[in-house]
Every structure is written in C-alpha cells, then in structure tokens.
Amino acid sequence: MLPRRPRSLDPRHSLRQSDRLQGTGRVAARIHMSIRDEITAYLTTVAAGRGIAATALGPDVPLMEAGVLDSLSLLDFIRHIERTWGLTIPEEEIVLENFGTIAAVTAYLEKSQPSGVRR
C-alpha cells in the first residue's frame, strides 16, 4: 500500500468553496489538476516505489510491461480511481485497453465523466 499524500497534494482537498457550490457533479467541480496530471502523479509515486524513474513514464508506455503495475497494484490503482473520481468501475471494464497506459486511463475517465471535465 502506498503512503497517503499530504492533503495539500490530494486533488480531492483542493477545492475552492465556489467550485463546491457550482457542482455539475463531484468530479467536474473538483478538478484543479487535469485527469492526466493526477493519474501521472499517482503512477509516478508507484513507479518510484518500484525503483522506476518518473522519466520512464509517458502517456503511451505500457504500465504492466514497464513494471509500474502488476495485477495487485492495478487493483489498488482502480480503487484509487474509484475513490478520487467517485466512480464504480465494472469488472468487465478493467482491461488493459482501458488501464494499460496513462493515455488509455485518461481516455476512459474522460468518457466516464460529465462533459465539463478535461485533460
């Protein structure tokens, strides 16, 4: 399990009051970091814990082949996504096509979110 990030780095705690009140859904209102930035930040932490340099992570790098994720850490990553974006990801959608690269995860989350959410 990864150590918790300080609240100041956790995007769930970076809302301004005005953002909370406008609400087009929990996710659209809370975005200060882009989806791709949040995913990259999380995976950079995971990679560092495995001795993989952040420079090895790119949007199209296969996360499992690069050793960033394995089957157990993929499940931790899915739980992180569900908590961060308030989603429930169906088991049948947990496939490498959706979660194999940072670009794939970003695309999956963008199509799963309200229309106001961008990279």
TrEMBL record:
Taxonomic path: Bacteria, Pseudomonadati, Planctomycetota, Planctomycetia, Planctomycetales
PROSITE patterns on file: CARRIER
Bias (Basic and acidic residues): 7-19
Disordered, as annotated region: 1-22
Signal sequence region: none
Domain Carrier per the UniProt entry, residue ranges: 33-113
Name of the protein this chain belongs to: Acyl carrier protein
